[in-house]
Amino acid sequence: PSEGHAYAQVGWPGNVGVLSGFSDQQLAISEIGVTFPDDSFEQGTDNTPPEKVHGEPWMFVLRDVLQFSDSLESGIQRITEANRTCNLIIGLGDGEEGMVNGIEYSGYVATPYNDETLLPVNETWHPKIDDVVYNGMDWLCPNYDTVLAQQLNKYHGSISEVNTIANILPTVQTGDLHAVVYDLTDSLMHVSFCRRASADPSEPQYAYERQFTRLNMKDVFAQAPPQV
User: Fold this and answer.
1) Which residues, 6 or more positions from 208, have their beta carbon under 8 angstroms from its beta carbon?
2) Residue 57, CB half-sphere, CA atoms under 13 Å: how many?
3) Nearest to residue 138, comparing CAs of 1, 29, 31?
4) pLDDT of residue 226
5) What is the mean pLDDT of the chain?
6) Fewest CB atoms within 10 A around its CB: which of 19, 81, 96, 200?
């Protein structure tokens, strides 16, 4: 872009925001929607107001984080100051700092957390794991979080893009429509999408079952910008 930092987003034709993306500052971001929040979101539950619908679309917020932030801290600040709307879980990582935060995101709160302050708090199905920040398919998601915690503990100390793609994601069965795995240290992004509707039905259906494409982001950002 003419302003800010170079970034790449992975999505679909016509998508002008960011679903999953990576910047030349070694920042990466992804999100998942929240269907089962608790009252800490301050919206969207029986005890809280409805989710805000007027504000900055979340895909634009994620895009601005990649384009205008140069650190984990500045990315969190940009999210905190945004005019947010719906309930989400954001994952934001910084390869230079070697840190990842989750962010509880709603129209009323933007709460970052790390491995020591992991959210939601539940030692039964969402236990803390040293140096790991994780959430399953939702906020209150005991079944997925339990299996995900088991897999993360199984490979703790040796988690890599290879065993994440080959073992962790297929075992947990997470990443139906789209899956992305980042190596922020070496600036690598691995992406997969679900089967096209027109594809042979004998092909694997879900993104986590399918072939991933590895993108070397240093090479991507070394490309000359298009001339318009």
Assistant:
1) 169, 170, 173, 174, 175, 176, 179, 192
2) 8
3) 31
4) 78
5) 96
6) 200
CA 123, 129, 133 angle in degrees (round to 5)? Answer: 100
178 forms beta bridges with 193
Contact 62, 7 (CB under 8 A): no
Helical segments of the chain, H only: 58-68, 72-81, 142-154, 161-163, 169-172, 217-222
Q: How far apart are CA 115 and CA 25, in angstroms?
A: 23
Please give the backbone phi and psi of residue 15, each rounded to the nearest 5 degrees, phi first. -80, 115
Using CA atoms of 154, 141, 212, 224 in order, give the dihedral in degrees to the nearest 10.
-110
| Dist CA 89 CA 33 (whole Å) | 6
Which pLDDT tens digit goes with each residue over 137-195? 999 999 999 999 999 999 999 999 999 999 999 999 999 999 999 999 999 999 999 99
Rounded to whole angstroms, the Cα distance separating 121 from 228 reads 50
CB atoms within 10 A of CB 56: 12
Instruction: Determine whether 177 is exposed, middle or buried from the number of CB atoms within 10 Å of its CB (0-12, 13-18, 19+).
Output: exposed
Is the preceding omega at residue 120 within 30 degrees of 0, hence cis? yes
Amino acid at 24: D
The radius of gyration of the chain from alpha carbons, rounded to an integer in Å, stands at 17
92, 95, 96, 99: CA torsion to nearest 10: 50
